[in-house]
Prior knowledge:
Layout: H1 27-38, H2 40-44, H3 47-55, H4 59-81, H5 90-98, H6 100-135, H7 144-159, H8 163-194, H9 216-230, H10 246-276, H11 280-288, H12 291-299, H13 302-339, H14 355-374, H15 379-410, H16 423-440, H17 450-467, H18 471-479
Helix pairs in contact: 1-8, 1-10, 1-13, 3-9, 3-11, 4-9, 4-10, 4-15, 4-16, 5-6, 5-15, 6-7, 6-13, 6-14, 6-15, 6-17, 7-13, 7-14, 8-10, 8-12, 8-13, 9-15, 9-16, 10-11, 12-13, 13-14, 13-18, 15-16, 15-17
Amino acid sequence: xxxxxxxxxxxxxxxxGGQGMHTELKLVDAAAFSVGLIGPVGAIxxxxxxxxxxxxxxxxLAFIFAVIGVALVAYAFVKLAQHIAHTGSVYALVGVxxxxxxxxxxxxxxxxxxxxxxxxxxxxxxYFGGQFLDDVGILxxxxxxxxxxxxxxxxxxxxxxxxxxxxxxxxxxxxxxxILVTILSVVIFAKLIFSHGPQGQTFNMHFLQLPTGADxxxxxxxxxYGFLAFAGFEGxxxxxxxxxxxxxxxxxxxxxxxxVVGAFYLLTxxxxxxxxxxxxxxxxxxVDGSPFNDLGQGYIGKVYAxxxxxxxxxxxxxxxxxxxxxxxxxxYALTRDATGAHGGLVKLSxxxxxxxxxxxxxxxxxxxxxxxxxxxxxxxxxxxxxxTLGTISLLVAYVLATAGAVKFLFFSGEARAPMWQVAxxxxxxxxxxYTIYKNVFNVEGAYRHFGWLVxxxxxxxxxxxxxxxxxxxxxxxxxxxxxx
Length: 484
């Protein structure tokens, strides 16, 4: 196996105040960024209901499918991050392995994914924030857009601070919320095993059984919510120029994020399915319900339910903050390497933040929130529209990353990993392609348009690659310092 020296990519030429990005982050910061970008508490607060609408009592199976798929894809990111350190995340990983044009397209796909997911998470703030304010008697309103925009204002207040402050804020919010959700899951299991639930629910193994007529295709269709729940696990890779020893710490951070969050999701998905009940009545309640509010109140009490809804709101703020920060770094990297410029969107703040790129991302997210409201979408429809759109674009980036890993690790000169391991990223790519297929073809309603919308976004990125004179050469030079 060839050896590489874990050296961070050199910082770009000074662009603000004589400083580049600050290389100051450790393992805990990189892991916190990935976990915060995933936002497991806010994600699992609603995504289980989306999966239940497709697969009924088999929600846990959809998350198991997603965990396996993400673990296989994560192999590609972990291995590539041992050789490549760059603030562009997937853009750099694919650019170095498959070439600058493919890299730019992968970065473009990830940029669209993060912005769409940030938009959906911000809209979801309007849902859970409004529910929390109503439950505690502070405010009753059906106008979710104002609460969502207030949440976005909070994100803006935090987003321009030092990245270390952002990563630690993300970690603190998620750890506290995850502890509270885990306590609820344990209480549910204990009551169902030793007694019964509020509507007579008891423990059974039906949560691991598919409903009548369902098959592997049904699992894959529902698994889009599982993949969405993991969206951002690769976020630490965007800190390649801000982390000390990135080729050591970032792979570890990605592993920590996937293992810890995966275990949390499986426990929570199972407890939610069993908590509502695995019969037809329970499945209907799950699909139409709000798990933290319903189960928190039914198994522990109203105050605990209110706290959980409040923590979900905070977690969604963390997701919006993380996706905006990640998208800004990708936009910064794409612009810097593709244009060779050191001003405009490439200008950094005194904190080493790509402040102008961040401002653009936040404005686009805000426009997306307002646009959904003007279109008359309900808060839940608007949330799932944006999140699903972002997930499909994200999965495209994952496919390119796994393809790049196969080529770079096994078929570019001396193998950089044991040859038998080629099956891991190959299977990961197959998982993701199948999931894309099941969520683009033969779907109904507004969702039937989402594959076309992602394709249009990719065509725009492809047009930039083809039509911009000298772009490939500039990107190649920009990525030259990211691998060793």
